[in-house]
DNA sequence: TGGTTAGATGAAGGAATCTTCAGGTTTGGA
DNA sequence: TCCAAACCTGAAGATTCCTTCATCTAACCA
């Protein structure tokens, strides 16, 4: 097993012409394609380059190594989900806790399950590439967004928003992962149950309710 | 990246003398040691054998390949957690839903977090070894155990036990994973919040409550 | 149009591991 | 004590991939 050095993920060269920008996109896209079609084990830099219609050398002009390439793909995917969460949190400012919960579940699942295959494939490379670190960085943003949203709730909560936000994000990402890895479980019913769980949790946190 | 063939995980040879039984244990133990000390990337069969005090050849006498070795280690770990869940489910038969939820959270987290380092290390190898498949097999047992427990609840639930069990197990394993991968989040408070969430969910499922 | 820089190429070097197997050692029973 | 079965050994074969770099082509600008 080759050492996947975890050095800088900075591109070696920044695309300055439109041509190279297209090349970078093609490489990134090809990486996902190969991941889906061939699987992580057969994902070689040569094959990715080939699928992208360029030579390996070109690939290495923009990514210092295989690891960095994979990380970049992962980072982009996670960012999309984080963006969805952020959007929801913006929209729900000042709303009632239950509405927040429901919207959060909807938004998160929609983003995460939009392309289950890709999500699953990316989880599988995560462990080779310090995916945890990336997930944590990106996740921290989402967690904070949720916290801010909760603080703006029309009804105050019995615990600090940070704790509740951590729980919510933990449940979402956890269940999300479970679903992605067991696609047979994905059904409209699951979303409803998750909403039910999140909402009843938030409801139980209303100050007037004794815990 | 070598192809980790996913062939049979049957040992090539069954230990017939006490000597070899000890060897197998040593190899399994060494695998975890190496995983913890060196990390997944540096985990080579030669190194494992060395740490176990035997030669590589011996290792290959009991495990057809590296992949099978890793899978066996993973399977054992997951089984321990499943056992803990089973035990809880037995104990809580006929109890009130909230008691079940609380006990489940406690039991699951205790088992999963007993050795966080090892749990984390094993998650990291999971994706190389079809860990998903193993997790699903072992998880199915737990899920069914929870279902049976819920069916025996002293108060009936508004949804079928299977759905609720799937949700509960999903949340537990999902959050469990999140915690294992972010050890800084592990705190007594998290357990309480998780109990709160699970209990309020189960409470919301009581038939007398409108959903 | 000519020069300079950005971008692309791909054969080949180099580094690692996994896995085998022919042969040596230990164990346990007759 | 002696033998057959069970165990163990570890050098070396066989593969596979990552990454580099000298060289070539395309694009841009004066």
Can you describe what's shown?
The structure is a homodimer of 211-residue chains. With 211 residues, chain A is mainly α. Chain A is built from nine helices and no strands. The longest helix of chain A has 26 residues, at 66-91. Residues 1-10 of chain A have low confidence and may be disordered. At the A-B interface, helix 6, helix 7, helix 8 and helix 9 of A face helix 6, helix 7, helix 8 and helix 9 of B. The structure holds a DNA duplex (30 and 30 nucleotides).
Number of helices of chain A: 9
Number of strands of chain A: 0
The average pLDDT score of chain A comes to: 90
Spatial gap, N to C terminus of chain A: 52 Å
Percent of residues in helices of chain A = over 70%
Q: What percent of residues of chain A are in strands?
A: under 5%
Question: Secondary-structure element sequence of chain A?
Answer: HHHHHHHHH
Radius of gyration of chain A, in angstroms, nearest whole number: 20 Å
Major β-sheet of chain A, in short? none
Oligomer: homodimer
| Mass-distribution shape of chain A | elongated
Most residues in contact: chain pair: A-B, 48 and 46 residues
Structural category of chain A = mainly alpha
Spans where pLDDT lies below 50 across 5 or more residues of chain A: 1-10
């Amino acid at each position: 097993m080759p050492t996947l050095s975890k050095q800088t993920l900075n591109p070696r060269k920044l695309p300055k012409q439109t041509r190279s920008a297209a090349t970078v996109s093609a490489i990134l896209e090809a990486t996902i394609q190969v991941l889906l079609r061939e699987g992580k084990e057969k994902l070689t830099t040569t094959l990715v380059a080939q699928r992208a219609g360029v030579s390996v050398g070109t690939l290495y002009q923009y990514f210092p190594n295989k690891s960095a390439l994979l990380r970049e793909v992962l980072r982009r995917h996670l960012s999309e989900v984080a963006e969805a969460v952020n959007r929801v949190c913006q929209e729900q400012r000042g709303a009632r806790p239950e509405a927040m919960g429901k919207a959060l579940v909807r938004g998160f699942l929609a983003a995460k399950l939009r392309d289950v295959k890709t999500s699953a494939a990316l989880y599988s490379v995560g462990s080779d590439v310090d995916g945890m670190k990336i997930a944590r960085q990106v996740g921290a943003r989402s967690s904070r967004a949720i916290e801010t949203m909760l603080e703006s709730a029309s009804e105050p909560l019995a615990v600090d928003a940070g704790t509740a936000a951590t729980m919510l994000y933990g449940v979402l990402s956890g269940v999300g992962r479970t679903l992605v890895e067991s696609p047979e479980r994905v059904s409209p019913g699951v979303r409803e149950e998750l909403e039910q769980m999140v909402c009843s949790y938030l409801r139980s946190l209303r100050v007037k309710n004794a815990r």
